Amino acid sequence: MQRLKTRPQFQAVLAGAIVARTTHFALHRNALEAKAMQNQPGKRAEAPALFPVRDLWIGAMVPKRWAKRAVTRNAIKRQIYTVSADLLLQFPPAAFVVRLRRDFSRQEFVSASSEQLKQAVRAEVQALLQTLVQAEGMAL
Hints:
Shape: globular
Oligomer: single chain
Structural class: alpha/beta
Distance between the termini: 22 Å
Strand order of the largest sheet: 1-4-5-3-2
Strand content: 15-25%
CATH topology: Ribosomal Protein S5, domain 2
Largest sheet: 5 strands, mixed
CATH class: Alpha Beta
Number of strands: 5
Radius of gyration: 16 Å
C-alpha cells in the first residue's frame, strides 16, 4: 500500500467519485488508469506519472477547519491509515482519500487526543470502509 503525498495526487483522487459516507467522513475513489500510470508513447516525458506504481494508494485529509489542534489531526490520520491498511488490501489497485467532513464535538471529546476519540474515529472509519466492501461485493 502506498500513501498519497503530493497535492496533484490528492486532487486527482478528490476529482473522483465519493463511494461511501459516514457522519464525519467521506471516502473518495479514483481508479488507476493506464494513461495515468505511464507517459504516453511518442510524447516526451514532461512530468512523472501521478501514480508511478500500480498498487493501492491511500490518503487522509483532515482539515484544520474540522480539527483545530495538530494533535487531533495527527491522531485521526494515524487511525485512518491503520484501519485502511487492514481493510483495503482486498481491492484492485485504486487510489482512495478518506476526508474528514465534520468536526468531532469538543463537548464529547474534551481532550485533544484521547483514547475515546481514537476509538470513535477507528469505529467510524471501519464502518466507512465496510460500506465500501459491501458495495463492491454486490457489484462483483
